[in-house]
Amino acid sequence: MRLKGYTVLTAANGQEALDTCDVQVPDLLVLDIMMPKLDGYAVCKTLRETSEIPIIMLTALSDVSRRVKGLEMGADDYMVKPFSPRELEARIDCILRRVRRPTTNGASTPGIIKAGCLSIDVNKRQVHKAKERIRVTGLEFSLLELLVSRPGEVISRYEIFKQVWGLDTDILGGLIDKRVIDVHLSRLRLKIEEDPNNPEFILTIRGEGYQFQRIEGQV
Question: In the prediction, which pLDDT does 80 show?
Answer without folding.
Answer: 85
